[in-house]
């Protein structure tokens, strides 16, 4: 049967807030969790992924988990280690102990951020392109995908790892014209990842059907995802303001954009 009760971690964040609005329309009952309290949601669980007992209690009785919680940008390694690496491990352990069979993991394009962006007639980036993280943050997403594979092989817990592009109300850069996922398509994709059968561990890219798409959405579509949006209506204005992506600009050369070129965060 399709999952009904879904734990949404990171529910106070940008994507969590968008999904809290949109996913109930698909019939889900959301249980919310975040480090931070959520205004207007007094029942939301306020907990740190570092607190194993709290995480175990949070997953008890749900049919599935959408795991968005964590640090969503580059940060010192120690912080990434706690929130994204240990935190995601705690969540999977809790799922194993409590018998939750399906997790949707918010991976990121930054797990493969050092992949050159396709140009001209280059093929779209395939889903099995090697991990090439562009930051400690991206590295934690590579780890999360491996963790998901491990919990499938070892314990039979299914995951769809979604390498999300940029899920915001509107694209705000020329790069985002290629990687943008509209919030409505985000909800469509999460719904597909929750309801598709026999996913084992499946990795998909998460974006709308953008005219300037850089990656292959075939795997996402095979789960039943049918994106309805395209960033193209935003293109003229963004290109007029910012110009086209430039050859010779390193941040424009790779999938990960500025995550590739931003100075590393010390201490290593
Ligand atoms: P965000 O930073 O707005 O939200 C993350 C939430 O996680 C925050 O509310 C924060 O309080 C919570 N959190 C952080 N550490 C925690 C911990 N130790 N325990 C419990 N909660 C914790 O990020 P956003 O944009 O909403 O992204 C959500 C997820 O999707 C993140 O995992 C991010 O890496 C991933 N993602 C998002 C993309 C996007 O376009 N928004 C693109 C690619 C990946
Ligand atoms: C991400 O992984 C970040 O969480 C999000 O804030 C955006 O920066 C996005 O990637 C992106 O690549 O635009």
TrEMBL record:
Q: Give the EC number.
A: 1.1.1.203
InterPro entries, sorted: Epimerase_deHydtase (IPR001509), NAD(P)-bd_dom_sf (IPR036291), SDR_fam (IPR002347)
Organism superkingdom: Bacteria
Keywords, comma-separated and alphabetical: NAD, Oxidoreductase
Domain (NAD-dependent epimerase/dehydratase) spans 6-170
Question: What SUPFAM superfamilies does its record include?
Answer: NAD(P)-binding Rossmann-fold domains (SSF51735)
Q: Does the keyword NAD apply?
A: yes
Q: Which family does it belong to?
A: Belongs to the NAD(P)-dependent epimerase/dehydratase family.
The name this protein goes by in its record: Uronate dehydrogenase
